[in-house]
């Protein structure tokens, strides 16, 4: 049986952590103001990595918010495609997943 309170708490904590990380990334991206071409190239490479992390973090935030909404609607733990239960093992690894293992492949 899925303990929704524990799952919700875990998702809310992860959401807060991601939000903090995204703010740090944004601050880092805004802090670069080098005038030297070589330093600017190095900063740009780092910025590309940070931007990728930001996009990934934003995607995870959307997935977590959708999972929290499914909890509110009583649909959490049910595959959105086939309607079967999502295994607890899968939810332990991907607590925001909307699909069972079969439908995710």
Question: Which short descriptors sum up this protein?
Answer:
105 residues; mainly alpha; 4 helices; 0% strand
Q: Give the low-confidence spans.
A: none
Shape, principal axes of CA atoms: elongated
By secondary-structure content and strand pairing, the structural class works out as mainly alpha
Order of helices and strands: HHHH
Quick gist of this model?
By secondary structure, the protein is an all-alpha fold.
Structure description:
The structure is a single chain. This protein is an all-alpha fold and 105 residues long. It has a domain at 4-75. Helices cover 70% and strands 0% of the residues. It contains 4 helices and no strands.
Topology:
Elements: H1 4-31, H2 37-72, H3 88-93, H4 101-104
Helix pairs in contact: 1-2
């Amino acid at each position: 049986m899925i303990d929704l309170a524990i799952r919700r708490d875990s998702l809310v904590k992860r959401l807060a952590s991601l939000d903090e990380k995204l703010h740090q990334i944004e601050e880092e991206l805004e802090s670069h103001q080098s005038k030297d071409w070589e330093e600017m190239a190095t900063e740009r490479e780092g910025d590309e990595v940070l931007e990728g992390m930001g996009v990934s973090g934003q995607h995870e935030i959307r997935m977590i918010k959708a999972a929290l909404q499914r909890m509110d609607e009583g649909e959490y733990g049910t595959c959105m495609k086939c309607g079967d239960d999502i295994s607890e093992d899968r939810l332990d690894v991907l607590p925001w997943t909307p699909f069972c293992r079969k439908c995710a492949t």
